[in-house]
Design brief:
Bound molecules: 1,3-dihydroxyacetonephosphate
Helix content: 40-55%
Radius of gyration: 17 Å
CATH topology: TIM Barrel
Shape: globular
Strand order of the largest sheet: 1-2-3-4-5-6-7-8
Mean pLDDT: 97
Number of strands: 8
Number of domains: 1
Oligomer: single chain
Distance between the termini: 15 Å
Low-confidence stretches: none
CATH architecture: Alpha-Beta Barrel
Strand content: 5-15%
CATH superfamily: Aldolase class I
Order of helices and strands: EHEHEHEHHEHHHEHHEHEH
CATH class: Alpha Beta
C-alpha cells in the first residue's frame, strides 16, 4: 500500500514571517494525521525558519527549485547540497512554471533529478500537458517524453523513491480540475510506463500525485482513484483551513 502524500507548493508567496506563521499553525493542526505524508515548499528565503517551525512534527519541507551543480560561480543559484544541509527532504523538479516561464529543458530537468539524488533529496518530478497538447491528443506522448527523459540514468531503486506529480497545465491556478476519471487515466498511463521499463516493485512503490486546483471539496474524489496517491496543492496550500481541509477530506475517505 502506498501512503498518501500531500504536498503544498507555496510558489512565490509568503515572506519569511508569513511562511513561518503558516508552518507553525500547520504543525499544530496536522498532529493528528498519522496515515499521510505531508510536505510544504516555501520560498528558499523562508526554508530555515520553516524547517525550524516544523521540527519534530510529521511535516517535511521541500524546495521549489535547485541548480544541478554542487557549488561554484553560479550567481543567484542554490545547490541541492545546500538545501539538504539546511534540512530540506524533498525537491520539486520540473514544475510547469519552471519549464514554461524559465525555459527549463528536458535535459536540465534530468540533471536536476540526478543532482537531487546525489545530495540526498527526494525529488517530486512534475509533469503535465498544456491545453493545446491535450486538444491535439498528445497528452500521453508529452508526459511519456517528460518522464523518460527525467528518469534517464537513474537506478531502479532511485526511481522507486521518486514522487511523480501529474499537473495538467490547464488545471493549474484556473479552478478547473481534471475529472477524477481523466486524471486516473493519465495516472494509470504513468504507472504503466514504469511497469514497462523497471522491475515490478518500482511501479508499486512510486507515488503519483495529482495537482491542479485541488481543493477540500474535490480532494476526496480524486484521491479515491486507484492510481492517485496524493496531491500537489498550490493555492489551497496557502491557508491553514484549506490545506487541513484537504487532509481531512482524504483521510475520511480512507476510513
Ligand atoms: P493550484 O493548486 O493553485 O492549481 O496549483 C497547482 C500547482 O501548480 C502545484 O504545484
Amino acid at each position: 500500500m502506498r501512503r498518501p502524500f500531500i504536498a503544498g507548493n507555496w510558489k512565490m508567496n509568503l515572506n519569511i514571517e508569513e511562511a513561518t506563521t503558516l508552518a507553525s499553525a500547520l504543525a499544530q493542526q496536522t498532529a493528528s494525521f498519522r496515515n499521510v505524508d505531508i510536505a510544504i515548499a516555501p520560498t528558499h528565503l523562508a526554508l530555515s525558519s520553516v524547517i525550524n517551525a516544523v521540527k519534530n512534527t510529521g511535516i517535511h519541507v521541500a524546495s521549489q527549485n535547485h541548480y544541478f551543480e554542487e557549488s561554484g560561480a553560479y550567481t543567484g543559484q542554490v545547490s541541492p547540497t545546500m538545501l539538504r544541509a539546511a534540512g530540506v527532504a524533498y525537491a520539486l523538479v520540473g514544475h510547469s512554471e519552471r519549464r514554461t516561464l524559465f525555459n527549463e529543458s528536458l535535459a536540465e530537468v534530468n540533471k536536476k533529478m540526478q543532482a537531487a539524488f546525489q545530495a540526498g533529496l527526494l525529488p517530486i518530478l512534475c509533469v503535465g500537458e498544456t491545453l493545446a497538447e491535450r486538444n491535439q491528443n498528445s497528452a500521453e506522448s508529452v508526459i511519456k517524453e517528460q518522464i523518460e527523459t527525467a528518469l534517464d540514468g537513474l537506478s531502479a531503486d532511485q526511481v522507486a523513491a521518486v514522487t511523480i506529480a501529474y499537473e495538467p497545465v490547464w488545471a493549474i491556478g484556473t479552478g478547473i480540475t481534471a475529472s477524477p476519471r481523466d486524471a486516473q487515466q493519465i495516472h494509470a498511463f504513468i504507472r504503466k510506463l514504469l511497469v514497462d521499463r523497471y522491475p515490478a516493485f518500482v511501479a508499486e512503490d512510486v507515488r503519483i500525485q495529482y495537482g491542479g486546483s485541488v481543493k477540500p471539496h474535490n480532494a476526496a474524489e480524486l484521491l479515491a482513484q486507484p492510481d492517485i496517491d496524493g496531491a500537489l496543492v498550490g493555492g489551497a496550500s496557502l491557508t491553514v483551513d484549506a490545506f487541513v481541509g484537504i487532509l481531512h477530506a482524504i483521510t475520511e475517505t480512507q476510513g
